[in-house]
Amino acid sequence: MATFVVIGAQWGDEGKGKMTDYLAEDANVVVRFQGGNNAGHTVVVGDKEYKLHLIPSGILYEDKLNVLGNGVVIDPKDMLKEINYLKELGVKITAKTLLISDRAHVIMPYHKALDGAIESFRGKKSIGTTGKGIGPCYTDKAERTGIRICDLMNPEVFKEKLMINLEIKNALLTKVYNKEPFKFDEIYNEYLDYADKLREFVCDASVRVYDEIKNNKNILFEGAQGNLLDIDYGTYPYVTSSNTTATGVAAGVGIGPNMIESVVGIAKAYTTRVGEGPFPTELDNELGQYIREKGHEYGVTTGRSRRCGWLDAVILKQAVRVSGVTSFAVTKIDTLAGMESLKICVGYKIGDKIIDYIPASLEDLAKCEPIYEEFQGWDDSVSVARSFDELHPNAKIYLKRIEEITGAKISIVSVGPKRDQTMRVDTL
Fold this sequence. Notes:
Elements: E1 3-8, H1 16-23, E2 29-32, E3 41-45, E4 48-52, E5 65-68, E6 73-74, H2 76-88, E7 98-101, E8 105-106, H3 109-122, H4 134-143, H5 149-152, H6 155-175, H7 184-198, E9 202-203, H8 205-214, E10 219-222, H9 248-254, E11 262-268, E12 271-273, H10 286-294, E13 307-309, E14 311-312, H11 313-323, E15 327-331, E16 341-350, E17 353-355, H12 362-367, E18 369-376, H13 393-406, E19 409-414, E20 422-424
Parallel strand pairs: 1-10, 1-11, 2-5, 2-10, 5-7, 6-8, 7-9, 11-15, 14-16, 15-19
Antiparallel strand pairs: 3-4, 12-13, 16-17, 16-18, 19-20
Helix pairs in contact: 3-4, 3-6
């Protein structure tokens, strides 16, 4: 048996989709443990490109079981849309390849309406949500008023819970945010139709995943977003509404933490983030724009441009500490090709103090000045390398320094978007 977690080690968008697809070759089961359809993965297989938002990347293999755990929030409409999108591309999706936890919470239309209304109400202090209803859905979960997949499967239970929720949500929408109310019959009938179409995929995912582990199957746990978007250890409040670190796996799937053997942190060779908040190594200049364009740094889900900057090893050290990262997979070193010199942030200076961790206060983080080490660059030959030995010598120095700073090995290096542009450096 091998159980391992794949997480984003930065602010998300590190290339987790490609890495999960790559690692899924050795897995029997791929499990998503948190988040919703507010994140996206792009996976290139041969000459085909797949854009995934909710379904685990292992779905691109015919012999893998893919599971959405109870920690995921599910928009049934978008879920079915994604299923149909993949089917049109020739991907076979059945109850043998995809399962949904009956404990997962359901995103309702009023969640999306509230998401947009609250963001508009915040004005200049908006968090920068995707408007997908993720936050309000997790809010209902914490308030114990949410509707779960098991409720959606029972028309009478769903009816009762929807009526109670609509009474509260319509009052908020109309009296606080001056928005139109939702009609019960329209939502009820629409979601019953979704329930019928999703019913075959629904199960107790905790039991199924546990059984697979006990049967010595290889299990890959896939997260959305990244380490610094974790609701507890991210750059709060500019975070998502769930635990994106590896610690979220146990609660988000329903297994014991002792069942996780290793954690792979996916990290770009530089740093990007979307939305507001401090970004110590940001390159808000022509160089940052160059990286953005060469690396195609635009969101899969929203199309928003990503802010770009030098690699911040302080962030990676936090991923090692908080998520227990046992090895890193470093992506997009090909994007940095052609630069004469590169930098890695190894610490922060805040006033007269030097620190090597991310402070909780965003006001303090905004004052942090990066302490850099400089490295010689490499040429475009990295994109044709198919083993670590074939990499440009300067790229090897850069990668080995990441290992030294973080204390975690680099097990995988990616030099392009295709499957064959990924190389193993060490065993997981």
